[in-house]
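Example record for the data management plan.
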Amino acid sequence: MQLTAIVVAAGRGTRARTQKPKQYEHVAGRPVLEWTLRALAPQVAAIVVVRHPDDARLFEALDLSAIHVPVIDVNGADSRDGSVRAGLEAVPEGTTHVLIHDGARCCVTPAVVDRVIKALHSNPAAAPALPVTDALWTGDDSTEGPRVTGIQDRSGLYRAQTPQGFELTAIRAAHAARTRPAADDVEVARDHGLDVAIVEGDDNNIKITHPEDFARAHHLLKGPAHMDIRLGNGYDVHRFGPGDHVILCGVKIPHDRALQGHSDADVGMHTVTDAIYGALAEGDIGQHFPPSDPQWKGAASEIFLRHAVELARDRGYRIGNVDCTLVCEMPKIGPHSVAMRTEMARLMGLELGQVSVKATTSEELGFTGRKEGIACIATVTLIGQ
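Corresponding structural encoding:
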């Protein structure tokens, strides 16, 4: 399955009563549309933004530096249906499924997107929704204001949300056959005979429509509920062998023995690298750089660390902090810890205050106590962007 997100953002949003289209108004420090693209990017291979022809400069002003997938912008149409069709025609080659999402739903969570994607593995279409729980009335207007005229049964009723996911050829055919406007793409799909699975939505997956919605979106985007925080642990050991120095966290330290390994045996850097892979659920160094591959013989460990950092960035995460503890009797780590922190921060693009490198002994117990090698443990925090 290769997914492309189609973000429908060509509307004028007059009910929001903003000076410019609501999708370009700022909320929690960024334009609404920028938040939306950031939310979708980690889970798709590409994004197609369907914008209004008059909004080219507003779109170009968005900061897309944190979005590490191709972003294609195309002109929308006078109707939502027409805009979706424009987006469907612009998806990159190789796309098998699409997620069609409202540009003003900037608070969508990874969990909602994941549920739609999982449902697409066994269904031609899937969409998030929430059961209607409030009592429903019918009413009409009178000179004295609206009056209740009846009660509507809420059994089997759902509040629709996006992203709505579809098999690409099926939704293209459904839109091509459509001859009248539709409320959303689920209606288009069902009228064409597609079975649509319902997955659990989220009350916070709001669509900014009215002026007061901006305040709620600000709270959601700044609050901890929206943050995707991951923790990874690493552990590594290297034994001593012949040599006159060790390399720890990128720093060469004179010593009467050297650490043994397929690469340069930097046990500190290896452990931090494994912690990043762990936070991403991406295995360990051995899976990405097999020791059986001769090209990594004697390789500098910064190659591995840079790969892990770039992989995290490509997945939409930044490194919050790193805590690395070396376990050894010798050499003494304290005199070199600042240099180690500085080098690790440089390689990972972090501030010095985000990197901790410290050491402890094992009180002469075990293999480290017998000075047979060095062990290391590390913890890394990744924060979704």
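Summary line stored alongside the record: The chain has two domains: 3-226, 229-384.
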